[in-house]
Structure formats: structure tokens, C-alpha cells
Amino acid sequence: MGFGYIGSCLHVWYSRLLPALSNTFIKSNSKSIQVFGRMLFDQLLFAPILLTGFFPINQIIIDRDIKAFGKGVEVWKEKIQETLTANYKIWPIASTVNFWFMPIKYQVLFANIVGLFWNMILSFIASK
Fold first, then answer.
1. 3-state secondary structure (DSSP) of residue 124
2. Which of 124, 96, 120, 89 is nearest to 110 (CA)?
3. Alpha-carbon span 56 to 62, nearest angstrom
4. Closest CA to 38 of 111, 120, 114
5. Which long-range contacts (CB under 8 A, 24 or more apart) does 51-56 make?
6. What is the pLDDT of residues 31-72, one digit of tens each?
7. Pair 99, 38: CB distance under 8 Å
8. What is the pTM assigned to this prediction?
9. What is the mean pLDDT of the segment spanning 60-85?
10. What distance in Å separates the CA atoms of residue 128 and residue 121, rounded to the nearest whole number?
């Protein structure tokens, strides 16, 4: 479940939403400010929203029942701290590399490659 959900979210985020936010709020010609600003948007906005949706959706898929949403919220409460901690060990560095070195047309691909490994970690956390 994880890779499809996260891969789709990454594509929309990197190709549409993040550029719109960056162009609206980051008014600097400095590359370091632009990269740092995008990384902050990515980690302080996108990551918590994405991870909040992951556990309830994952539980619905596991149980094959929409009524499992509440159970997924309980799993989220139990695991969100560990998940965000793991996220912040990986994604800020990956995002900074992505925004600094990757041409825009390859940023989604780079994020999806990192996301493949991230999904292994996320699956491990979800299955404990």
C-alpha cells in the first residue's frame, strides 16, 4: 500500500504544490534560502500531513473495512512520534540534496527513489 500512496503524493507535491508554495512565500534569489525554504515546507507541512493519512488508510486496507479508520487513528497516535523521528533522520537531508542538486524534472524521480527505501522503514514501523 505504502509505495503507491506515497509515490502519488510525492508526485503531486513536487510537481504542483511545492513549486506554488515556494513561488508564493520564498522571495529570494539566494539558492540556499530557496533550498532551505523548500526543505522546511517539505518537512513541516507535507511530512506530517502525509504520515497522518498513512496509518488510517493502511488500517482500512489491512482490515478491508472502512470502519477500521478509527483503529487506524489509534495506530497513528501510537506510532506517529516514532515515524516522524525516523522521517526527520532521512528526509531533510534527502530533500536538501534533491532541491540543491537535482534538476526540477528529476526531483520527483529522486524523491521516489528515496521513497522506496523510506517505504521499507515505514512498513517496518507500521507492522510492529
1. helix
2. 96
3. 10
4. 111
5. 51/76, 51/80, 51/83, 51/84, 51/87, 52/76, 52/80, 53/5, 54/2, 54/5, 54/6, 54/83, 54/122, 54/126, 55/79, 55/80, 55/126
6. 898 889 889 988 998 899 889 999 999 999 999 999 999 999
7. yes
8. 0.81
9. 96
10. 11
| Lookup result for grid cell 504544490 | 17
Angle of CA points 75, 79, 81, to nearest 5°: 145
Quick one: which of 4, 87, 105, 86 has its CA closest to 39?
A: 87
Q: Which of 59, 127, 58, 45 is nearest to 87 (CA)?
A: 45
Asked whether 112 and 7 are in contact (CB, 8 A), the reply is: yes
Average pLDDT over residues 73-99: 96
